[in-house]
Structures are given as C-alpha cells and as structure tokens.
Design a protein that fits this description.
Helix content: 25-40%
Strand order of the largest sheet: 10-9-8-11-12-14-13
Largest sheet: 7 strands, mixed
CATH topology of the largest domain: Rossmann fold
Order of helices and strands: EHEEHEHEEEHEHEHEEHHEHEE
CATH class of the largest domain: Alpha Beta
Number of domains: 2
C-alpha cells in the first residue's frame, strides 16, 4: 500500500448524485462514496481522467447539471472498507438489491450487485422504476431483451422471475460487469453482446431500455421492431424536461403506465397487434 492516495471530490446538486456516480462507476472500478451533494472517488492512481470525463459529461448536459471537481492528495487509510460501510441495500418492488457483503432479505427476490461496477445498483430513480415495472410485467418463460444493460441488474431481475434473457450494451466494460454480476448471482443469460438492438433478429415479449432520452429517440424504430405483437416495451432514463419528445417518438404504441421518481420518467408501452 502506498503512503498517499488521490481523492476526487465532486460537488453538485443532490438530485444528480446518483446519475453522476453511476457514470463514474462505469469508467472507474473501485469504491465510490456518495453523500448529500457530494461524490468522493479515491485511488492510489491518478484520477485526473475521471475528473475530465465528469466535466465533459456536465458540458454535454448543458445547464441541466452544474458541478465542480477538486483533486487532493491524502494520507492512505482503509478507505475501501469505509466505502463498503457506506453502501446500503435497497428494496425495489419485488427485489432486494444488495452488495455481496450485505445479507439477503426474506420474502424479496435477492439480487447481488456491487455498486462500484457499471451503471445500475438500484439506487438511481430510473433503475428503481424499471425494477418495479419488471416485477409487474415479466412472467416466467417469456423472452426479455435488456438494451444498454450496464451492470446487468435489469436482466438479472427478469431472469430471477424465470424469463429467458438477452442483454447488450455498446460499452465493453458494461458487458464485463454484466458477466461478473450474473456469475455473482449464479444466474444464466441466453445471449450477451457488445452493440445495440440492431444486432438481433429476434423478437421479445419484453424489451427494456434504460438509457437516456436522446438515445431512446435515436433507436426508437429499432426498439419497437424487436417487440413481439402484444409485447411490452419499458423505456427509462428520461428527464421530465425531455419527456414530450420521447412520447412523440413512441406515439404509435399504446402507453400503459408512466412512472416518475424524482425528475426521472419511465414509460411502459404495449405494442398492439395492429401497431
């Protein structure tokens, strides 16, 4: 263990702590600590690339997210254990999402996801709402596609309900994280690939895409194409300020339900036979 480590402190509006921490977790493999209005990243290696990536994301989001970053050098300590102590399990519908160092909860479906991995540990509003929707709509024996799978948590949830699951993501790190999490949960998937919905010719009873509004609009036709007639499409990652444009892109489907958690919207559609 080296004598010093770097600490990156990201200060931002508390509403966006989960969003930015999930982004950081997708590019950085060690512990991330979250508090009100603050994200702390620690490493014995240089963290400047993380700072640059976060600031670039903030620039991309424009006025939506305002944040500041500062890197300091500190005396080393057992900060990984401190991080583990700070992570709390969460209930989301039928599911109990926990890190592997926490105990399962009776009467809830157990999913182990270590939140230092790629996007999705259940805490973010979009992931939470998608888990609720999966619990409501996925049945045993159905085929499910998770587009933009991140940590694989949504596919895991569908698989725990007895579905046959395919997953994809354009980020190879997310694919690795998904593989790790399925192994961690002693779970199986049917297919897993780097890329998007355009790489499958199958049709699915349930298609889930927890991404961002602009991508959901860009791949709207592809997502709708792979949903079976009378199948369900669950889309999320939509800021309420961008909801109207997403609704327009999916207007030929029947909207079954709208969920909102904080400023994040999840839309649940049915593809009717004549859709």
């Amino acid at each position: 263990m080296t004598k010093t480590y770097q600490e990156l402190t990201i200060t931002l509006d508390d509403r966006f702590v989960d969003l930015i921490s999930d982004f950081v977790a997708n590019i950085y493999g060690d512990g991330i600590e979250m508090a009100e209005g603050t994200i702390i990243v620690r490493s014995e290696n240089d963290l400047d690339y993380v700072r640059q990536a976060v600031e670039a994301l903030a620039d991309t989001l424009g006025d939506t997210v305002t944040l500041s970053c500062a890197i300091t050098e500190k005396e080393n300590q057992d900060w990984i254990q401190s991080y583990k102590d700070s992570v709390q399990p969460i209930e989301a519908g039928k599911f109990y999402i926990r890190p592997e160092w926490s105990a399962p909860k009776e009467a809830l479906i157990d999913i182990i996801v270590n939140p230092a991995l790629a996007f999705g540990s259940g805490h973010h509003g979009t992931t939470f709402s998608c888990l609720e929707a999966i619990g409501d709509h996925v049945q045993a024996g159905e085929s499910v596609l998770d587009v933009g799978c991140g940590s694989g948590i949504l596919g895991l949830a569908a698989g725990k309900l007895g579905a046959t699951v395919d997953l994809c993501d354009t980020d190879p790190i997310s694919i690795e994280s998904t593989e790790e999490n399925f192994l961690l949960n002693h779970a199986d998937y049917h297919g897993l690939w780097v890329g998007s919905v355009n790489k499958t010719e199958n049709k699915y009873a349930i298609v889930i895409a927890n991404i961002i509004a602009d991508v959901l609009k860009a791949i709207a036709s592809g997502l709708q194409e792979v949903v079976q007639d009378n199948g369900i499409l669950i889309i999320s990652g939509i800021l309420d300020t961008k909801e109207s444009s997403v609704l327009e892109a999916y207007s030929n489907l029947m909207l079954l339900e709208r969920k909102q958690k904080d400023e994040w919207v999840t839309l649940i559609y049915k593809k009717e036979t004549n859709g």
